[in-house]
Amino acid sequence: FSDIQKILDMVMGDFGPDKQHTDLSRITDNRFAKTFFNLSAAMTDTKPFWDYRTYNKKFESQATIANKLSAAWYYTRNIDLRQLGVVQYALAGGSGYAHIIYNHELEDLDIIPEDPRDVIPIRPASLHTIQDSFGVIVRRERTVNWVKQKFGKRADRVVADRDASISTQADLIQSPGVSAPRSSFMQNVASTLKKKPDLKIPSVDVFYMYIDDRSRNKGGVQRYVGDWGRTEGRSYVAMNNWAYIVQPGERMFPRKRLIIFTRTAVLYDGPSIYWHGLFPIAKFTLDPAPGSWLGKITMRDLIPLQIELNKLLRDMANYHRRVGRRNTVWDKNAASRATQQRYDPA
Predict the structure, then answer these.
(1) pLDDT score, position 170
(2) 49-53, 68-72, 122-126, 268-272, range with the lowest pLDDT
(3) For the whole model, what pTM was predicted?
(4) Cα separation of 297 and 88, whole Å?
């Protein structure tokens, strides 16, 4: 995991702290980023097609409609860009994850490219897929306001983990040489009061844990699983289409169990909302390797090449600069060393 952030930083042109003198060359030729984007573009430059077919002529019209709906979903929801994100995470981390969800805001299916550092498999049985694992945890950063609006009273115990505002996260500034927009007034106030200022955008890590819970209803009565309400006649009514009744002896969660939680609160604990009964996460590994869950990281081999290329270009630039501007000879008693460095830093 330690190289993933380094690879992403180098793609954005951040090669680490530059300790060279200000008058020496700082030239860079980011072939690393060019290779990264060329590879990701080549692997996603495809024309998708669907082929729903049936051998019953009565359902041929439904198959045609399914093909058209799939193509419309792919183009209107920018799924090609979502796939690009999955491939780019795979280039940087060995594997990328496509989290296929139902987006309640769009009222349609959506794909979220997940960082491999934010997906934690639970007892995987193989190295190639996540479907044979006991479970999987997906971590996502959300604002506290979003969590409270989404989960209502269940989020009363949610506590912020960090500040998500740009002014307090210098790492979000991807352009080298650009500092984060901090407020000098707030820094002075904080130093005077001997405490940190209030969080501007409090955020919290929300964990989505899908598990293959094989527990059964061992009681002698039926159980209501999911969100249920009561009518005026005091009878139970399902609040959504993934709430169901479990008879004695049947599995409590035949289509997986979903637990949504933070470090301080449980936001949801019930059945998975997806009828397919699978983990809604697809693992994409570019170069599988024996004994490695993420596989071989493609871009890691290019890190030393990019570093040496920058050094070579800077040495050449400094050499040509020295040829065009010869060294100066100073009388050490005529000027201080600071003055000499100011006129001839090299």
Answers:
(1) 46
(2) 49-53
(3) 0.79
(4) 11
